[in-house]
Amino acid sequence: VDKANLKDRLTLVYKKINNILGSDMSLFETNNDGMSRVTRTKGLSLDSLSSGMKTFYLIKSLIDNGTIVQNGTLILDEPEVHLHPDWQVTLAEVIVLLQREMGLHILINTHSPYFLRAIEVFSGKYDTEDVIKYYLSYNEGDNAKMKDVTFNISEIYKVLSGPLQRIENEGYNDRD
């Protein structure tokens, strides 16, 4: 019953992932003896997936096989790597929805302003912003420090926009 209820609550998550994968929802099925077996869905082969698609496949697989569980913890180190900015946005929405529907505790490290902004926007859209905290890491001497910037997230964007500003400055200087 719990598994069926969870599957119903994750319908939107599966829909978003399936749109990326171009596949139906059943990657894992359960035999009559209760043992899980991998099934290939129409047109989906793990070997033929791009690195970005594998990110979505992995999340789907971890849900299907019960590794990601209610109130569990999920640690994602730069999950946006290898993703087109549009897929970064979709992944952020999937993560926010997973947190909302499963009560997950999620720790994310990112260097993508697209991904960060998408987390911010979707947490507002899905009413989860009250459970999200934002931290900025920085070096102070030989020590790494963390600063809570939940109420001033612009500090993170300032750091993330620095490289683009450097490029723009270089381009402007070359014209002189």
The N- and C-terminal alpha carbons lie at a distance of 69 Å
Q: What's the helical proportion of residues?
A: 40-55%
Classify the secondary structure makeup into a structural class: alpha+beta
Question: How many beta-strand runs?
Answer: 6
Rough shape? globular
Q: Summarize the helix and strand pattern as letters.
A: HHEEHEHEHEEH
Largest sheet report: 2 strands, antiparallel
Question: What portion of the residues fall into strands of 2 or more residues?
Answer: 15-25%
- Strands of the widest sheet, in order across it, are 1-2
Unreliable spans are 25-36
Mean pLDDT level: 86
C-alpha Rg, in Å? 19 Å
Number of helical segments with 4 or more residues: 6
Q: What is the topology?
A:
Blueprint: H1 2-9, H2 11-21, E1 28-30, E2 36-38, H3 51-64, E3 73-77, H4 85-102, E4 105-109, H5 113-125, E5 135-140, E6 143-148, H6 154-174
Kindly describe this structure.
- It is a single chain.
- Helices cover 48% and strands 16% of the residues.
- By secondary structure, it is α+β, with helices and mostly antiparallel strands.
- It has a two-stranded antiparallel ribbon. It has a two-stranded parallel ribbon with strand order 3-4.
- Strand 3, helix 4 (85-102) and strand 4 (105-109) form a beta-alpha-beta unit.
- The longest helix is centred in the C-terminal third of the chain and has 21 residues, at 154-174.
- The radius of gyration is 19 Å and the shape is globular.
- It starts with a helix and ends with a helix.
